[in-house]
UniProtKB/TrEMBL annotation:
Highest taxon, organism lineage: Bacteria
Name of the protein this chain belongs to: PA2169 family four-helix-bundle protein
NCBIfam families assigned to the protein according to its UniProt record, in alphabetical order: PA2169 family four-helix-bundle protein
Database matches in InterPro entries: CHP02284 (IPR011971), DUF2383 (IPR019052), Ferritin-like (IPR012347), UCP029477 (IPR016920)
Start and end residues of each DUF2383 domain: 7-114
Length: 151
């Protein structure tokens, strides 16, 4: 398997994580004063660390690490901005959008881990980052379901 296949897979995951960082930063700024603001900031910081782990692995493989989010992420972000301008943002709406992003991110990592695109060493890095992704996904999912139960 060519290192280029791994670099492409790792850069795709990196771009998706960058989108996640942007999403969490946006959620934190729109949930200003909310009980969730600090959670969003912590997750953004954690995701930035995960981005750096993947970039380091790309460099180890001799590739050029991704430094920008995905086109789809940018498109999704513009849609969220438009939606926010029209409907306003409350905690429930923000959590719903964050969870949607978490579902997408988790699926991307699971697809990469289920493919044959990674060698053992790169797979180990992706699995380590995936643990953080899964933790974030589960936390946001619990918040969403907790809010729905108390509504």
């Amino acid at each position: 398997m060519a290192d280029q296949d791994q670099v492409t897979t790792l850069n795709t995951l990196t771009a998706t994580l960058i989108d996640s960082v942007t999403g969490y930063e946006d959620a934190a700024s729109n949930a200003d004063g909310s009980r969730f603001t600090e959670i969003f900031r912590q997750r953004a910081t954690e995701r930035n660390q995960a981005v750096e782990e993947l970039r380091s692995e790309v460099r180890r493989l001799g590739g050029n690490p991704e430094d920008d989010g995905s086109f789809l992420g940018k498109t999704h972000q513009r849609f969220l901005d438009l939606k926010a301008a029209v409907t306003g943002r409350d905690d429930q709406a923000i959590i719903n959008e964050v969870e949607r992003g978490e579902d997408y991110l988790k699926e991307k990592f699971e697809a990469a881990l289920n493919s044959d695109a990674l060698t053992a060493e790169s797979r180990s890095v992706v699995e380590r980052v995936y643990q953080s992704v899964r933790s974030g996904h589960d936390q946001i999912s619990q918040l969403k379901h907790g809010m729905e139960a108390s509504a």
